[in-house]
Amino acid sequence: MSWIRFPETVVYEDRIEAKHSRWGQDAVLFQVHNGTRKLGNRYGADRTGQPHRFLLLDGKPLSDSSGDAIYCPTCEKLLSLGLGREQVDEEFIRTIQCSQTDHSSDIAHAFEKAKPMLSMLDDGYYLITRILMVPTDGEGRFFWNLSTSKKRYPAAADVYYKYHYSNGTPKFLLPSQGTGCLNEERIDYYLEQIRNGQTMTGLALYNDGFMSTLLDGHHRAAAAYAANTYVDCLTIIPVTAFQIDQDHKPSRLFAGGEAYDSALFKQPDRIYKSLKKHNDPGLCFLTVDDVEQILAECKEEHDPELSLNRYSGMKSYPDYLSVAFADLAGDDISEERINAIFSAYDEDAEIELEMLFKKLQMEETERAFELAFRIALEPNWRMLLEDSFRYLAAFDREEVEDHFIHYVIHTEFDSKDSCRKIADKYLNSR
Question: Is there a domain that residue 393 lies in?
């Protein structure tokens, strides 16, 4: 008897070294061919003509991005939660959960274990990598606070700020299930694991801008937030575009805000031919009736704002601008560069200082703390005063308390003074 060997659905293509991405971890480039298409984005418009982009799992909505902004890379996105996860067949949920590996495992091993889940994706090319995710919405708020009510997410877009542009990169999280599923006993269990030195892990699918959707690990991410630490997410990133040179040869491909030179890959021509073949937008579009049916499944209400009051405390997470500016600021974060900026005050210097301040928040916390004080005490940098106060307020230190007391006493009262509000809140909490 002869056996017919069918091609694999999920195929390893290449390994990309950590130095080629902002998240600093190796990645595997892989192809999905003849997958089940159970997990992916679908586009459509409702009866009013409003555009929607749904993330669907087995035809059920996990999230909804709506409005014309979904086609604009630098526009804030209107996001809302889909409540479809609770209606998905348990087999698919188990497949997602079983794709997790220990954070210390090699990315090639993680890829092999995740293959059953990866076969659920749309056909095309993807990266799989590990990224230390921040369990917030990109602006410091608890990541799980996405509801069925629409909310603007600046972090779900690339950054265009004071004529400076930065591509988004996977860093922050969106939930894929409602807050009604939260179990504080599970959070306490994982908090104990964190105290014992365990790293919290998750599984995420890159969404847009700086945001990824958490497919598995909500309670681990909640525990990480409570402990003011990060989530080591096995992250799937779709390859979204490619570029050819003047000789019509493949030159770069794009994924997760990064551009990868074709020289990194053993068979770039084959990759680009396949990308062109599978780049059919018609496969991803829904009819009006399909969109209306999905929207009807998203009408259930639940608590839109979940607070972990008994886990509250000082949080020193970066925001999406910190991540963008860390890239724009460049490699030089020396004291010499900072001193030169302080001695040459103008609008350009202010933007440069703001970017360096954000980069230090990402990379050198203590130096960022010192710079925040320096900004707060210099009269030339009033535009950055609120940022410096907000950053200082994340530290439970006596010198911060003294500085805020001095500010409250020696500045004239103004009900619109955001720095005073930050100082008052800080002092009242001590």
Answer: yes
The secondary structure of residue 8, as a DSSP letter, is P
Q: Exposed, middle or buried: residue 428 (CB in 10 Å: 0-12, 13-18, 19+)?
A: exposed
Residues 79, 192 share a domain: yes
Report how far residue 273's alpha carbon sits from residue 259's, in angstroms, rounded to the nearest whole number: 18
Tell me which DSSP letter residue 298 carries.
Answer: T
Whether residue 128 lies inside any domain: the answer is: yes
Q: How many helices (H) and strands (E) does the chain have?
A: 13, 16
In this structure, is residue 220 part of a structural domain?
Answer: yes
Question: How many whole angstroms from its chain centre is CA 221?
Answer: 13
Q: Work out whether the CA dihedral 116, 119, 125, 126 comes out positive or negative.
A: negative
The reported pLDDT for the residue numbered 399 is: 93
* Predicted model pTM: 0.85
Same domain flag for 270 and 178: yes
Reading the block at residue 8, the tokens are 């694999």
Number of structural domains the chain divides into:
2
Contacts of 217 (CB under 8 A, 6+ apart): 100, 200, 201, 202, 203, 231, 233
Supply the range of the domain harboring residue 40: 10-309
The C-alpha atoms of residue 322 and residue 171 are separated, in whole angstroms, by 11
pLDDT in tens, 248-265: 777 899 999 999 998 898
Same domain, 46 and 102: yes
The pairing of strands 151-153 and 124-133 is unpaired
Same domain, 347 and 304: no
User: What DSSP element (H or E) covers 67?
Assistant: none
Residue 320 lies in a domain: no
Q: Give the burial class of 381: count Cβ atoms within 10 A of its Cβ; 0-12 exposed, 13-18 middle, 19 or more buried.
A: buried
CA nearest to 282, candidates 85, 91, 42, 59: 42
Q: What digits encode the pLDDT tens for the residues 72-99?
A: 988 999 998 887 888 888 888 888 888 8
- Residue 381's beta-bridge partner residues? none
Q: Quick one: 122 and 172 in the same domain?
A: yes
Kindly indicate the confidence band of residue 301, based on its pLDDT and cuts at 50, 70 and 90.
low
82 vs 421 pLDDT, higher one:
421
